[in-house]
Amino acid sequence: MKKQKTREPTHFELSVYKITSKIPKGKTMTYGEIAKKLKTSPRAVGQALKRNPFAPRVPCHRVIMSDGGLGGFSGNIKKNIEIKRRLLIKEGTIK
Fold it and tell me: Which has the closest alpha carbon to 30: 2, 67, 59?
Protein backbone atom coordinates (compact mmCIF):
# COMPACT_ATOMS: atom_id res chain seq x y z
CA MET A 1 0.00 0.00 0.00
CA LYS A 2 1.41 3.39 -1.02
CA LYS A 3 1.79 5.96 1.71
CA GLN A 4 0.36 9.31 0.64
CA LYS A 5 2.56 12.34 0.89
CA THR A 6 1.33 14.66 3.58
CA ARG A 7 0.60 18.23 2.67
CA GLU A 8 -0.97 21.21 4.32
CA PRO A 9 -4.77 21.35 3.93
CA THR A 10 -6.02 23.87 1.40
CA HIS A 11 -8.15 26.87 2.35
CA PHE A 12 -11.18 25.04 0.96
CA GLU A 13 -10.45 21.89 2.95
CA LEU A 14 -10.05 23.93 6.12
CA SER A 15 -13.45 25.54 5.51
CA VAL A 16 -15.01 22.06 5.18
CA TYR A 17 -13.28 20.92 8.38
CA LYS A 18 -14.47 24.01 10.25
CA ILE A 19 -18.12 23.25 9.44
CA THR A 20 -17.70 19.54 10.10
CA SER A 21 -16.08 20.16 13.48
CA LYS A 22 -19.29 21.86 14.63
CA ILE A 23 -21.52 18.80 14.05
CA PRO A 24 -22.45 17.65 17.57
CA LYS A 25 -22.32 14.06 18.75
CA GLY A 26 -25.54 12.26 17.82
CA LYS A 27 -26.20 14.52 14.82
CA THR A 28 -25.27 14.38 11.15
CA MET A 29 -25.06 16.69 8.17
CA THR A 30 -25.10 15.77 4.52
CA TYR A 31 -22.37 16.39 2.01
CA GLY A 32 -24.93 18.56 0.19
CA GLU A 33 -25.69 20.71 3.25
CA ILE A 34 -22.01 21.46 3.72
CA ALA A 35 -21.60 22.07 -0.02
CA LYS A 36 -24.49 24.55 -0.02
CA LYS A 37 -22.89 26.55 2.81
CA LEU A 38 -19.64 26.72 0.83
CA LYS A 39 -21.25 27.18 -2.60
CA THR A 40 -19.57 24.08 -3.98
CA SER A 41 -20.45 20.49 -4.84
CA PRO A 42 -21.08 17.56 -2.47
CA ARG A 43 -18.35 15.65 -4.29
CA ALA A 44 -15.80 18.38 -3.48
CA VAL A 45 -16.81 18.16 0.19
CA GLY A 46 -16.34 14.39 0.09
CA GLN A 47 -12.88 14.74 -1.43
CA ALA A 48 -11.89 17.20 1.30
CA LEU A 49 -13.18 14.88 4.03
CA LYS A 50 -11.34 11.95 2.44
CA ARG A 51 -8.11 13.80 3.29
CA ASN A 52 -9.17 14.89 6.82
CA PRO A 53 -5.96 14.93 8.89
CA PHE A 54 -7.78 16.11 12.02
CA ALA A 55 -10.03 13.11 12.79
CA PRO A 56 -11.54 12.56 15.29
CA ARG A 57 -11.52 16.26 16.29
CA VAL A 58 -13.11 16.89 12.90
CA PRO A 59 -15.77 14.16 12.95
CA CYS A 60 -16.08 13.38 9.25
CA HIS A 61 -17.97 10.19 10.14
CA ARG A 62 -20.96 12.46 10.92
CA VAL A 63 -21.28 13.50 7.27
CA ILE A 64 -23.70 11.33 5.28
CA MET A 65 -25.43 11.23 1.90
CA SER A 66 -28.69 13.10 1.34
CA ASP A 67 -30.58 9.79 0.96
CA GLY A 68 -29.41 8.67 4.39
CA GLY A 69 -26.67 6.42 3.04
CA LEU A 70 -23.33 6.52 4.79
CA GLY A 71 -21.33 7.53 1.73
CA GLY A 72 -17.61 7.03 1.88
CA PHE A 73 -15.18 7.07 4.75
CA SER A 74 -11.41 7.22 4.77
CA GLY A 75 -11.01 6.45 1.10
CA ASN A 76 -14.24 4.45 0.72
CA ILE A 77 -12.72 1.08 1.65
CA LYS A 78 -15.46 -1.34 2.75
CA LYS A 79 -13.93 -1.97 6.19
CA ASN A 80 -13.63 1.78 6.76
CA ILE A 81 -17.30 2.34 5.95
CA GLU A 82 -18.08 -0.30 8.59
CA ILE A 83 -16.03 1.75 11.06
CA LYS A 84 -18.13 4.80 10.16
CA ARG A 85 -21.32 2.81 10.73
CA ARG A 86 -20.09 1.59 14.14
CA LEU A 87 -19.11 5.12 15.21
CA LEU A 88 -22.57 6.43 14.30
CA ILE A 89 -24.24 3.56 16.16
CA LYS A 90 -22.08 4.24 19.23
CA GLU A 91 -23.10 7.91 19.14
CA GLY A 92 -26.77 6.95 18.88
CA THR A 93 -27.18 8.48 15.43
CA ILE A 94 -28.24 5.29 13.66
CA LYS A 95 -29.46 1.86 14.78
Answer: 67
Above 90 in pLDDT, residue 7?
A: no
> Is residue 63 annotated as a catalytic residue, yes or no?
no
List CB contacts of 86: < 8 A, sequence separation 6 or more.
Answer: none
pLDDT at 78 over 60: yes
Instruction: Specify whether the CB–CB gap between 66 and 53 falls below 8 A.
Output: no
Catalogue all structural domains in the chain, each as residue range(s) with its CATH number. Answer: 11-90 (1.10.10.10)
Contact at 8 Å (CB) between 17 and 5?
no
Do the strands 63-64 and 29-30 form a parallel or antiparallel pair, or are they unpaired?
parallel
**pTM: predicted TM-score of the whole model, two decimal places:** 0.85
Residue type at position 42: P
Indicate which residue of 49, 60, 81, 88 is catalytic: 60
